[in-house]
Amino acid sequence: MFADTVWMKNGDRLSGKIKVFDGGKLLLETPYGGSIALDWKQVQTLESDQEMLVKQDAYSGEKAKSLKAAEPGKVTLANGEAPKTVELASIEQIMKPKPLVEDFVWKGNVDVALDYKRAENDTDDYDVGFKTTARHGRWRHNAEGEYNRETKDDVTTTDNWSAEYALDRFITEKWFWQGRAEYKRDRIEDLARQRTVGTGPGYQFWDDELGAFSLGSLINRTDFEYQDGGKDNFYSAAVKWDYTRYLIGKNVQLFTNGEFAKPLGGVADYSLDAEVGLRYKVTEWASLNLKAEKDIITGTRESDLDKTRYTAGFGVTW
């Protein structure tokens, strides 16, 4: 249902559904042109029957039951008995407020990067990764995995895959407790297998229309298996992060996630598994992506790991 209206300074009147305002762009979903990013400086006023969270600074916001059109350059926040009219120029963000407990929310993405080259040196490079979360009430399921393979002149130089599952239980609106299990397999490096289970508290700083940010602290039990048959196991303290942020009217997404771990014994000095990248939305579901990945393990018995990968590809987001 499209019940919102935006009046532009040039006299145009646009109908649709307001999705979000951020970074100087108002995203309006229309039945005739899909999602349209409008320059906020060209908006005269607007109205919406939706409940909205209106932020006039980076730290606090005001919930409005609806938005009512006002004189040029202003909008009225309807809150029942005390409507409030504010300058459009004073507004930094507009978005739908996120309820504390939602019935079911599922989101995720799949990214694919391929490099198939036939020249003096033949190269085949495949990188596939996925990440998904499903939240039901106070429970949140997280799953992710990736597969990387590279060959040069019929010689395999990279061949590895990994998978992880984590279950979060929200204790309050922000605090949660996580349990996780992860498995990594590498057929090329000396460190052939890594198994990790862990648990610990986490904090969700925000999770809204524009992105999410969470930090977690874990105590892990990790098992290493080497190509020569050797084995190590140890406990570690770790910090995990997961950050996403939409920019430029939700056309570009900045993301980074990873884990830094410090073994409690002498098996290794530290480990880092992280990625950072950008996604550019081509359609509502398709995107182009650029990504950098770093995987480090130092201080092991002759099996240190230090890998960096840069990929460009396409993906699907939902």
From TrEMBL:
Cited Pfam families: DUF481
Descriptive protein name: Peptide chain release factor RF-3
Gene source species: Pseudomonas putida ND6
